[in-house]
Fold these 2 entries.
Entry 1:
Amino acid sequence: MAEARTESVAAATEVMAYFTRVMRGEEKDQFGLDAPLSERTRAAQELAKRTIDIENRMTGVSDQKIEIKLDWSR
């Protein structure tokens, strides 16, 4: 059961934790169903963008374009 939040805006760690739960299939929709693969993939992309952005800021690397390609042909 989710605890009540007093803050009006989610903290960055809360957002990252949410994306992680969706990506891993741990977050259910309002009907108790698993998120579709497309939503899990989107969560992974959003998580990757933020993780890479944080790492770049820590190392002083300028913004770079991130492109994620999935090969489902196997």
Note: The mean pLDDT is 80.
Entry 2:
Amino acid sequence: MLAFNMAPKTSSNDPQKEVDRRFMEGLIRFTAESLDTTRPVPFSALIVDSYTGKILMRARNAVAAESDPSAHAELRTVRKAAKKLKTFSLAGYTMYSTCEPCPMCMANALWASLDRVVYGATIADANQHCRQIQVPAKEVARRSDMTCAVDGPVLRAECYALFTHPNMLKAFATWSTRT
């Protein structure tokens, strides 16, 4: 399925890749806004209409801010989007995430019936800085009887740069996730 092609003409022969790059670039900018705050996070997610490209919802990780271990960006975005639409089904929508969804987040994407999940940095990239469950999103989707395409990494280096920003590195040093 091809999302609405908002990207300008480029040398790529795959219009979907250009759409994915454009949404990911915007998500990276949104995420980077947190890097100069007291609670920087490298994780954020965006949900768009798979057919029109209209943005429905976006959110950042808020585990520390909400004292909630499930307040991952992907879950928060799904929750907010479903609430906005007043439905539990997000069929017809695509999620973009600055990092490959953990198994909890990928399972949530499946339960929400998202069409696609597109990610930037990988679980292995994130694991260099904070604990991760080492099960790829594609594996979670493959082992489900629900369908959701998983594409990535897209702009991996740019997404990983969110993890290595000096303020983020300072924040990681205070996280007690390695003990």
Note: The radius of gyration is 15 Å.
